[in-house]
Design a protein that fits this description.
Elements (H helix, E strand, L loop, with lengths): L1 E3 L4 E6 L4 H16 L4 E9 L2 E8 L3 E8 L2 E8 L6 E6 L9 E2 L2 E2 H16 L4 E4 L11 H8 L4 E8 L9 E6 L5 H16 L13 H26 L3 E7 L2 H4 L4 E9 L3 H7 L2 H19 L2
Parallel strand pairs: 7-10, 7-11, 11-14, 12-13
Antiparallel strand pairs: 1-2, 2-4, 3-4, 5-6, 8-9, 12-14
Amino acid sequence: MSADEESRLIYIEIQNLDSNSFEKFSRNLELDIRGSNLFEDVIIDKSKDSVSLTLQVAPKVSYIMDATNNKIELNLQRTSKNKHLIVIDPGHGGKDPGAARGSVVEKKIVLAVGTYLRDELSKDFNVIMTRDSDFFVVLSERPKIGNKNKAALFVSVHANAAENKSANGVEVFYFSKKSSPYAERIANFENSIGEKYGDSSDKIIQISGELAYKKNQENSIRLAKKVVENIADRLEMRNGGVHGANFAVLRGFNGTGILIELGFVSNSYDAEILVDPSSQQKMAEEIAKSIREYLTR
């Protein structure tokens, strides 16, 4: 599966499809696609034992593609030109669990909070997620989803861990070419995930010019302050503050972007909050509240 972002064409090839299956598949698929209003056109070609699809995505429709484990997943959502579009990026997923201490696993926590956040924000904004279930998305693809859909805001959701079990609290990061030693360590760890799974973070370049970089940073800091204050107050967690660092996932997005570390899975107090569905919902509510305040200021 591949796509041409400029022409909004999606190409899919399916192998090992016999004639009977092809006839039934193509007839039903064409009816489903043409009746969906999500595509302007569909072309289906058969050659030997494979079938290729060319899909023309309709205007004002956002899309995310995933092709892993012999499964093709294509998520589409109609958007309104009058609404801001927000990308929610639950970190890690699939073969990458993220930070984990026993049954407290980052990829599960951030997907839950990200899903609650999507439901909250969808009341007022257009929202897409880089992943909405337990699958792996390479680091370099995450900011691309925001850029190709011209998102106003990119929110990456994570949970932290430390050897020191007393380390605790919620922290929010924004993209900066300069960082404190602490923030640099956090960014280096998150960036190393790409290397671990064969996707170098070095290829994620800063695409905004200096003026846009400074404006995006200013906006990101303002949003980050709202988020960390609101979560810490509502959940009675330590306010770990706002930090700038060279996060690849934020570096590659052309706009306002933040990375939220919801708490430490390695700390017993934070972990109890992180795995509790009621607390996850509250976190999402506070992030959504902060975003509304930021976008409607």
